[in-house]
Amino acid sequence: MTDSNPAELAAKFINYTSRHIFLTGKAGTGKTTFLRNLIQVTHKKAVIVAPTGIAAINAAGVTIHSLFQLPFGTYLPKQPATGDSHYNQQYNTPKTITRHLQMNATKRKIFLDLELLIIDEVSMLRADLLDAIEMVLRYVRKSNESFGGVQVLFIGDLHQLPPVVKSTEWNLLGEFYKSAFFFDALALQQNPPVYIELEKIYRQADEVFISLLNNLRNNAVTEKDMALLKSYYRENFVPDLNDKYITLTTHNQKADLMNRSSLEALKAQSWFYRSEVEDEFTESSYPAEHVLELKVGAQVMFIKNDPTPEKRYFNGKIATVTALQKDSITVQTEGVNETIVLEKYTWKNIRYTTDKVTNEIKEEVIGKFTQYPIKLAWAITIHKSQGLTFDKAIIDIGGAFAPGQIYVALSRLRSLDGLILTSLLAGSGIRQDPNVDLFSRRKQQVEALGEQVKAESEHFLRNYLLKCFDLSPLDNYVYEHVHSYTKDMSKSAKQKHHKWAQALLKELTALKQHASKFMSQILRLYQDRTDDGMALLLERAIAAENYFNPQLQQMSKNIFDRMELVKQDKQVVAFLTELLEMEALFYEKFKSIRKATALLKATMQQQEFTKDDVSKLLNEADRAFQLQKVFNMPNNTLDFNEVKAKPKSKSTRKKAEPKDKAPKVDTKDLTLQLHKQGLSVAEIAKERKLVASTVEAHLAHFVATQEIPATGLMDKRKLRKIINAIRELKTMQLNPIREHLGRDYSFGEIKIGLAAHLAESE
After folding, report:
1. Which domain holds residue 499?
2. Which residues form the AAA+ ATPase domain (predicted)?
């Protein structure tokens, strides 16, 4: 192994081992760039999470709490010892979390398929929250492996902002944890992450400045360093407006006050630019001002890199507003004569879902926030400056600092030439947390990491082959399915297919026995690590793929064919859903065998194996055709969302009506007909002599089945508030939702909101 580039080593650990990784690096070493490149190319099924909403939006991921459905507050790995330390304090345990954990089928499938969990901005991640994540993964995946068998990539700089823990919380957490930092989570004590540090600094080029920053990180500040910083001290410094300084301060209130007073000092007219918010985008996650107030002459800062090829600005670049119109903002950046007419930028709020055709985890946009990518920039908090780059900055440190804040503030600058300190630094204020120093000693030399990744890759590939050719989990699933046929044939549309299911199980069990023999071959062949030995292993793997996959494909086809027969009966949505889920497992096993062979071949040929390579292995068009056939129900077009929305109820035949009796019309259908004629809820109630709540309940049924949109029944803003309340409270019960929203919301409206929530859920 000759790799000496830490970024390349990190990529190899991620793509070709199962080890957890902590990827760190000084400010400006390209951690964000690494993450963006990784998510584009990794062959593993991956999701990105972050501790806060804004961090999640910036990382193009989701928040930890939303993905794992975790309540806010303290998590304890078990009940604390009795005593005063937890008297009257709120906390969660594995029992309280799993008791209320209600995951829909899509999220559960994401967790079952997940191979790589990426946690960004890990300096803010608390140890107890990481243990809660691991507990949920083990619980859902029914696995006692570390994180339920999911590999975790931690990205962040521990010398930046630490996790926030109140003293009352630490009274509880101190019973279980050495510190609040993620690396002291119990989940990592037996499986510590590989420590990899990106070292090439792209932001600064001045060796004196780089040395100072390194000493700040390493608790090695010298008297020479202190003297150097003191030379940039300017008491009561007030910059000229043309100097384009930005002030970095510790508190939001102070930064907001400086920006507000500076804007008011300008004599020009104020212009207001309102953002456009579509669908789901919580206010706490807004990445820019909801209403941006500007004046000509205002100092602003870009909060995104220029997406155009010209790259006229970067995140943190300072500019001055030169012209304003109703739909136009023109700015000029420092040292450039040309002006820039800004275009709005759209940030996306996503959730993870599963592609119905490929079974791959994908992003689904659920909300958008569109605004000009600038903000007032006479001042900004140090916390919000993370990830930004400035040419000139006034650092107002005020009183005491949390460990890492001085480093964060100074490391935003390209060079010391642009630094002004408005207060002197106390030596005690710039010491880093000793827990971080202790953890950083785990960092290994690049050469040792190179040997480690080679050994870990061999271990990973062997286990990956074994897992992909292991048909036991699939066999167990089909076994459970066969034993779910328990009803009398005369009363169940499902029961008539029992013999077919038994035949499928018999065929799969026979195939599993052959697969078990091949797994023994893998173990034997893997002992010969020579080129000839590996060539023989590849030859046998290809032969095994050619033997097993056609049979797995045929079983998938049998399930699709059976679904066509099932569709001829009524009230079979729940059964069709079972068959769809089972077929997806057969397809996933087929995919994994294809991928295992291709990964083995790429590894032997020392080639990269990427997401694109996985896509090339699959015939997506044929599978899409098969799925579309399933969703085309007789006399009714059924889509996948509808299948998911309907509950798994008992599937029973309707009793035959007497021949001399007219067929009974469902009362809900009558309500639907009147609604489609344009009648309001009140008008339908009057026409049918029903109370309004009954009419609303009827219509809610058709909202859940996606036959009518909820927006046609109630105000869109009101509907969104109901859905947000359901998600926030994590309940489908009417009374708690009503208490939360207030009496302006009727129970009928809440029922419609619940139906819309079910229709949205996958």
Report:
1. 469-645
2. 17-324
**205: which residues sit within 8 A by CB, 6+ positions away?**
414, 415
Q: Give the other-Cβ count within 10 Å of 700's Cβ.
A: 24
The closest of 72, 33, 75 to 52, measured between CA atoms, is 72
Q: Reduce the DSSP state of residue 387 to 3 states and report it.
A: coil
Report d(CA 543, CA 537) in Å as an integer: 10
Contacts of 627 (CB under 8 A, 6+ apart): 356, 357, 640
Higher per-residue pLDDT: 294 or 623: 294
Domain membership flag for residue 41: yes
pLDDT at site 641: 44
CA distance 277 to 461: 46
Q: What angle do CA 636, 642, 645 make, to 5 degrees?
A: 145
**Inter-residue long-range contacts of 66-73, CB under 8 Å, 24+ positions, other chains counted:** 66/351, 67/107, 67/352, 68/132, 68/133, 68/136, 69/101, 69/102, 69/103, 69/107, 69/136, 69/730, 70/97, 70/129, 70/132, 70/133, 70/136, 71/97, 71/100, 71/730
Q: Are residues 636 and 698 in the same domain?
A: no
Contact 154, 182 (CB under 8 A): yes
Beta-bridged to residue 367, according to DSSP, are 279, 349
pLDDT tens readout for residues 383-439: 778 777 888 899 887 654 555 677 778 888 888 888 998 877 765 545 667 788 788
Q: How many domains does the chain have?
A: 4
Is residue 378 scored above 60 in pLDDT?
A: yes
Q: Are residues 190 and 275 in the same domain?
A: no
Does the residue 208 lie in any domain?
A: no
Distance, CA of 664 to CA of 646 (rounded, Å): 23
Gap between the Cα atoms of 502 and 147, Å rounded: 35
Residues 229 and 425 sit within 8 Å (Cβ to Cβ): yes
User: Residues 702, 646: contact at Cβ < 8 Å?
Assistant: no
Mean pLDDT, the chain, whole residue set: 84
| Rounded Cα–Cα distance for residues 153 and 34 (Å) | 12
Residue 163: CB atoms within 10 Å? 17
CATH for 87: 3.40.50.300
Tokens of 687: 């026409």
Residues 504 and 563 in one domain: yes
Task: Return the bridge partners of 362, or none.
Answer: 353
Q: Please check whether residues 560 and 701 belong to one and the same domain.
A: no
Per DSSP bridges, beta strands 361-371 and 276-279 are antiparallel
Q: Give the span between the Cα atoms of 646 and 639, in whole angstroms.
A: 11
157 lies in the same domain as 282:
no
Q: How confident is the model at residue 654 (pLDDT cuts 50, 70, 90)?
A: very low
Maximum alpha-carbon separation in the chain: 103
The CATH code of the domain that includes 746 is 1.10.10.1390
In a 13 Å sphere around the CA of 435, the CA atoms on its Cβ side amount to 16
Q: How far apart are CA 406 and CA 127, in angstroms?
A: 24
Share of the chain above pLDDT 90, in %: 38
Backbone CA torsion sign across 576, 581, 582, 588: positive
User: Which residues 6+ apart lie within 8 Å of 561 measured at CB?
Assistant: none
Integer CA distances (angstroms), 66 to 62, 662, 679, 729, 730, in order = 7, 51, 39, 12, 11
- Give the SS3 label for residue 322: strand
Q: Which of 651, 237, 680 is nearest to 421 (CA)?
A: 237
Beta-bridge partner residues of 63: 50
DSSP alpha helices (H): ranges in 567-653? 573-604, 611-616, 620-631, 640-645
Give the model's confidence band at 645: pLDDT under 50 very low, under 70 low, under 90 confident, else very high. very low
Residue 42 in 3-state DSSP? coil
pLDDT at residue 28, rounded to an integer: 66
Judge if 405 and 543 occupy the same domain.
Answer: no
